[in-house]
Amino acid sequence: MSVAVLLTLFGVGLLVGLVSGLIGIGGGVLIVPFLYAFYAHPAWSGVHIGSDVATTVAHATSLFIIVPTAIRGTLSYHRAGLVEWRAAMPIALASVASAIGGALLAVSLPQFALKVAFGTLLMLSGTDLLRDRSAAAGRRGRSPVALWKSIATGLVVGLFSALLGIGGGAIAIPLLLYVIGVGVREVAATSLAIVMCSALAGTLTYAASRPDAALPEGTFGYVHLLAALPILAGSVLAVRWGALLNQRLPARSLRTVFALVFILLGLRLVLLNAPLLF
Question: Which helix (H) or strand (E) holds 157?
Fold first, then answer.
């Protein structure tokens, strides 16, 4: 890889870390579309990979990047006393089991089907970011949540986390708010704590898999380490900045910008790949 490519990867990592800490997502909704483009342009990236496995590699590599980013963000929130551990732990444990299954399922699915699913997720995530969450405030401290709700939430988060290469925060946040009842101020912190566990389980499963196709140098299982490490360096550096901004700035305008970007990216992925399903 050239110096320009490495600097681009690092810059993407800075953006991923900032967004991750700011709105409580693992960053996969940014990493995965970037890696789709990265692997689709080998003349620029210097990475040659078959189109039949590029999507899976992008998802696996995204999860690998998310793990330390989520760990650092969780620690920052924990020191601020914002992680609802009683809500996070049962959900995280359930997400680990389903994340393993999601990673195994992703390896066998058609690449264009994964892109359609990811595009749909992006549009749903963008729509959710536009939603006024103030109505969920004040629910914290009510009667304990039924265990089956926590387990079901964890299974959904873990499955889609590994299947689509995201930490799971984009799915966890609305479920934490409207099903589990976590307060608005604590939801980003609690989401990252769950992301930390589900992403780790998915990453280990992808890394332990033995791909049939030839993959680029520096790939461990389906995880492309040479692309991941520069992004990881930037994201770990910037995630604490995002967590600090979350506690100091009104984030409504930023959420709107991210929402529109997610919706447009998701729509493009669906329109390009959905015809291949038929």
Answer: helix 147-164
Per-residue pLDDT of the chain (278 residues; tens, 9 = 90+): 788 999 999 999 998 888 777 765 657 778 888 998 999 999 998 888 887 788 889 999 998 988 887 787 788 888 888 888 888 899 989 999 898 988 888 888 787 888 888 888 778 877 877 776 554 444 544 556 778 888 998 898 888 888 778 766 777 877 887 788 887 778 778 888 888 888 899 899 999 988 877 788 889 999 999 999 999 999 888 877 877 776 676 656 667 767 787 788 788 878 887 876 66
Q: Where are the beta strands (DSSP E) in 195-240?
A: 219-220, 223-224
Beta-ladder partners of 219? 224
* Contacts for 90-93: CB closer than 8 Å, 24+ residues apart: 90/147, 90/150, 90/151, 90/154, 91/150, 91/151, 91/153, 91/154, 91/157, 91/172, 91/176, 91/180, 91/194, 92/154, 92/193, 92/194, 92/196, 92/197, 92/198, 93/154, 93/197
* Distance between CA atoms of residues 45 and 43, nearest Å: 6
How many angstroms separate the CA atoms of 76 and 169, rounded?
16
| Cα–Cα nearest to 84, from 145, 18, 134, 23 | 145
Contact 181, 140 (CB under 8 A): yes
pTM above the 0.70 mark? yes
Residue 261's identity, in one-letter code, is V
Closest CA to 261 of 34, 22, 8, 26: 34
The CA distances from residue 255 to 26, 83, 143, in Å, are 15, 21, 30
Q: Which residue from 202, 172, 226 is spatially nearest to 48, judged by alpha carbons?
A: 226
